[in-house]
Specification:
The protein has 92 residues and is mainly alpha-helical. The chain has 4 helices and 2 strands. Helix 2 packs across helix 3. The chain is globular. It starts with a helix and ends with a helix.
Length: 92
């Protein structure tokens, strides 16, 4: 199942909203490794939102929740922001 451009844009818009970046990006695509960071808690909260969003898409409604959660994890791995260095240092 592929997402439409509009569905993909909705996910990108939410990603940007959560780190206070404008969408669409004014100067081309954001660099997810440099332009913003978030905490693990923020990432987990986004994943909850993403799973709920994906479960509303007609072609995905019949998928098992665990399959959608796995897919959401891959989307976050591909598009998500880097975990903040400050939080990583605190864990060491």
């Amino acid at each position: 199942m592929n997402l439409t451009k509009a569905q993909f844009a909705r996910i990108e818009k939410e990603l940007c909203r959560r780190v206070n970046l404008p969408y669409p990006p004014p100067n081309g695509p954001y660099d997810v490794s440099k332009d913003a960071t978030w905490t693990e808690a923020e990432e987990a909260d986004f994943k909850i939102w993403l799973v709920k969003y994906l479960r509303k898409i007609p072609g995905l409604k019949l998928m098992r929740k665990t399959a959608i959660e796995n897919w959401a994890g891959w989307i976050i791995f591909d598009l998500g922001w880097k975990i903040s260095e400050r939080e990583l240092c605190q864990k060491k």
